[in-house]
């Protein structure tokens, strides 16, 4: 949990761009570039909106959005997008990564997105869930039983 999740997502984006530059032969052939750019741009905007709205909900509740500082977490946020996903900011990152991959039109984006999901689930989210359970106890367990991790 030493590397912030946005750094991991931006690293994934950088790898996607590099992969597209070095291996353009793995491009999508099913869609026109304008369709790829339109849908990809829409997904990037949607993912960034998820990130922003989720962050605003944390700020509205006056609690920390930084997952590595559980001592500054003062409230269990279960409102807003957190009603749909326990991790709407990570979901937003996955959505905008998918949009960027579609924009680039390179199939190598798929394993990068999958790697981000696996990395966040196995390291970041697992550690956060353990800390939240220790801090909020049964309230967090009840929330966890009601709301899925991703969607």
Radius of gyration: 17 Å
Mean pLDDT: 91
Structural class: mainly alpha
So what's the oligomer here?
A: single chain
Low-confidence stretches: none
Described by the principal axes of the CA atoms, the overall outline is: elongated
Describe this structure in words.
- By secondary structure, the chain is mainly alpha-helical.
- It has one domain (32-146).
- The protein has helices at residues 5-22, 33-60, 88-104, 109-136, 138-146.
Question: Can you give me a brief rundown of this structure?
Answer:
The chain is mostly helical and 151 residues long.
Question: What topology emerges from the helices and strands here?
Answer:
Blueprint (H helix, E strand, L loop, with lengths): L4 H18 L10 H28 L27 H17 L4 H28 L1 H9 L5
Key attributes of the depicted protein:
66% helix, 151 residues, single chain, mainly alpha, 5 helices
